[in-house]
Input
Amino acid sequence: EDKVVQSPLSLVVHEGDTVTLNCSYEVTNFRSLLWYKQEKKAPTFLFMLTSSGIEKKSGRLSSILDKKELFSILNITATQTGDSAVYLCAVSNNNAGNMLTFGGGTRLMVKP
Amino acid sequence: KAGVTQTPRYLIKTRGQQVTLSCSPISGHRSVSWYQQTPGQGLQFLFEYFSETQRNKGNFPGRFSGRQFSNSRSEMNVSTLELGDSALYLCASRYLSTSNEQFFGPGTRLTVL
Output
């Protein structure tokens, strides 16, 4: 059974801080790893990673995947209050079609 | 381009009743997946439909079922509701069945009393 573990469970920082969120996984036949941001309702897509060592970047957010050590990190630099959300990591495997297995999420609170 | 839409947004039912939730994917997207989100279990995969066929099913009882229509709209049905079915039900669509980039709808908040 595929498994995704995210850490920390929650995090409180101040505006301007840099944060690193962690995601480790166990997947039988890895296909991809995805990061989502969930504020009130719908998770919004951030990144999809399939190859090790290639950083994906979008503004202040970046993510990288290590397929050897089976983890990914999501970095947020110069955090803003609008970054407050739950960040979800999910993996898919080639044996299970398009099913995503999600981690429990990291709840980030950015204080002014 | 309109996003994924789900109706209704909120629903209150009592135990034993049944419920039908609807999801309209992004225009052109043919794959629709359903997820249940609860505080205790997080986001869990229910099933996926592509071209009106169920492609994959999660570990949920047979009370949970779904279908997809020729216009890619999907419905999920939960029969004989239990208190534990109270959750946020999220629908996600993707362009191709081989693409993992899923886009989520706002969800339907189901409360079972």
Remarks:
- Chain A touches chain B at residues 31-32, 34, 36, 41-45, 48, 88, 90, 92, 96-105 (CB under 8 Å).
- The mean pLDDT of chain A is 93.
- The first strand of chain A starts at residue 3 and ends at 7.
